[in-house]
């Protein structure tokens, strides 16, 4: 009996420690790296570098080189990353779990995806809903920051298209439901 109690006590302590680790690190399931793809160029950058650029407009050395090699306008990239799209998070969740939502998720996941190209729809849905829950709006940088994998791939050549898809979603929802 004493042996069983000791074993149970150890298991409970271990489970408690694991729970505390997961609860104390909410960013444990958020993206830390962005694999930025422009044509044949492919570079792994920290989410922090992309986030700093989105907030301040300042390009880190590696990001500056990538934007220059890809011949992209940093101001345009920053606009697509930061332009907010207002959305009700509960309604967004319902829409994204519908047939129309799956189509939208599949289109946007051609630009923002998991490294393995698996479960893109689910990962993107989670990132969108988490971003909307925070402040009632969604931006591409918020999606990247809330992406539930350690690494997220972003096709820089198609970033504008992803932004347009999200903007179209907002417009369609407003037209359909008067939001």
3D structure, described in words:
With 179 residues, this protein is of the alpha+beta class. 62% of the residues lie in helices and 13% in strands. It contains nine helices and six strands, in the order H-E-E-H-H-H-E-H-H-E-H-E-H-E-H. The protein has helices spanning 2-24, 47-56, 61-69, 74-82, 89-96, 99-108, 120-135, 140-146, 159-177; strands spanning 33-38, 41-46, 85-86, 112-113, 137-138, 151-155. The strands form two sheets. It has a four-stranded mixed β-sheet with strand order 2-1-6-4. A two-stranded antiparallel ribbon has the order 3-5. Helix 6 (99-108) packs across helix 7 (120-135) and helix 7 crosses helix 8. The longest helix is centred in the first third of the chain and has 23 residues, at 2-24. It is globular and about 45 Å long. 27% of the residues are buried. Mean pLDDT is 79; it is low at 1-9 and 11-28.
């Amino acid at each position: 009996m004493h042996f069983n109690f000791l074993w149970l006590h150890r298991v409970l302590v271990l489970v408690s420690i694991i729970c505390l680790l997961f609860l104390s690190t909410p960013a444990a399931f958020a993206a830390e790296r962005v694999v930025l793809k422009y044509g044949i160029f492919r570079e792994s950058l920290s989410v922090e570098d992309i986030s700093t650029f989105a907030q301040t407009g300042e390009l880190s050395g590696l990001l500056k080189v990538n934007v220059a090699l890809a011949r992209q306008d940093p101001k345009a990239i920053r606009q697509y990353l930061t332009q907010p799209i207002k959305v009700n998070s509960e309604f967004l969740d319902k829409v994204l779990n519908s047939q129309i939502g799956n189509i939208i998720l599949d289109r946007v996941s051609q630009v923002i995806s998991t490294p393995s190209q698996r479960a893109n729809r689910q990962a993107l849905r989670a990132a969108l809903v988490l971003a909307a829950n925070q402040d009632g709006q969604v931006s591409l940088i918020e999606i990247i920051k809330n992406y539930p994998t350690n690494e997220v791939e972003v096709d820089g050549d198609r970033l504008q298209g992803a932004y347009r898809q999200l903007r179209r979603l907002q417009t369609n929802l407003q037209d359909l439901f008067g939001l």
